[in-house]
Design brief:
With 288 residues, the chain is of the alpha+beta class. The chain has helices at residues 30-34, 52-65, 74-88, 132-135, 163-174, 217-228, 273-286; strands at 10-13, 16-19, 37-45, 48-49, 93-101, 116-123, 137-146, 179-184, 189-192, 196-201, 204-208, 233-236, 248-253, 257-264, 267-268. Helix content is 26%, strand content 30%. The strands form 2 sheets. Strands 7, 8, 9, 10, 11, 12, 13, 14 and 15 form a 9-stranded mixed sheet that branches. A 6-stranded antiparallel sheet has the order 2-1-6-5-3-4. α2 (52-65) packs across α3 (74-88).
């Protein structure tokens, strides 16, 4: 695949479809300097974006958390995403919507007078963790921690929150791992760099309480699927040493979908029946 700034196709930018290579911003764009940007990652299956409207609604919520307003309604953004997907010619695609404070009258921390922009692009993107769905992903444990809700808007899908994700994933890949697991500011198990995490013990599922990180749409979907199967789900604080007693583990996310985990640091997990079942059931759901 070509670099992301050098491809054929169209990107929706501020109300119109433009040539992919022309979708540029000024070097003094506020978001580049101060991370005043929010985004959504979405997947289309068989020509339809899974939970599309929920993603768009969350994009608006995230912008509000960063104290700016997107100048397009949910319905207008839904129409724009449909146009991008149709233009791309793809039925299975990754869709990225991003909103940010641009260049304007302000170039300090404050940026109330700067315009807000919105762009939407779609491209082909396969399995996020490669062949991990078969053998289980291997995770490092990050030295960084998810911050307190008193320090940053932790429930927004904001670009600035991913800084430690990039650092942690680079460190993990250097060790031959697919991803990294964060603890939170209290020392509890939190999430991976772009996915939520689930564990299995004695036929019941345990997942960290989403009180200081994003409560992912895929996470919510999978919890619902488990409850529909009458499987008990414990949303709670999990200490790192508890991982030694868990039998299975998987990650959830729009990009990750449902991916089994085989190892986290020194802890190992079976790629067991429930992990495989949920991975297959999620695949069937999104393509239904």
């Amino acid at each position: 695949m070509a670099a992301y700034d050098d491809r054929d196709g169209k990107i929706w930018l501020d109300g119109e479809l433009i040539n992919w290579r022309d979708a540029n911003v000024h070097i003094l764009t506020h978001a580049m300097h101060y991370a005043s940007s929010v985004f959504e990652g979405e997947r289309a299956y068989n020509g339809k974006i899974f939970k599309s409207r929920e993603h768009t609604e969350r994009l608006h919520f995230s912008a509000g958390e960063l104290d700016f307003e997107i100048p397009y309604t949910v319905d207008e953004i839904e129409a724009a995403k449909a146009a991008v997907l149709a233009e791309s010619g793809l039925t299975d695609a990754y869709v990225r919507a991003v909103a940010w404070r641009g260049a304007g009258d302000d170039m300090g921390v404050a940026s109330a007078r700067n315009p807000v922009h919105l762009a939407i692009a779609a491209w082909e993107w396969g399995a996020y963790y490669g062949d991990a769905k078969m053998k289980g992903a291997k995770l490092d444990i990050s030295k960084w921690k998810r911050p307190s809700p008193e320090t940053i808007p932790v429930h927004a899908k904001a670009a600035g929150l991913y800084m430690i994700c990039t650092i942690s994933k680079h460190a993990a890949e250097a060790k031959g791992c697919s991803d990294a697991l964060f603890m939170d500011y209290r020392g509890y198990v939190a999430e991976a760099t772009g996915a939520n995490i689930f564990f299995v013990k004695d036929g019941e599922v345990h997942t960290p309480m989403a009180d200081c990180f994003l409560n992912g749409l895929t996470r919510q979907t999978v919890i619902g699927m488990l409850k529909d199967r009458q499987i008990k789900v414990h949303e709670r604080h999990i200490m790192p040493e508890e991982m030694e007693g868990f039998e299975q583990c998987w990650l959830t996310g729009t990009a990750a979908e449902v991916t089994p985990v085989g190892q986290i640091g020194e802890y190992t997990f079976e790629v067991g029946a429930l992990a495989r079942e949920m991975s297959e059931a999620y695949e069937a759901l999104v393509r239904a």
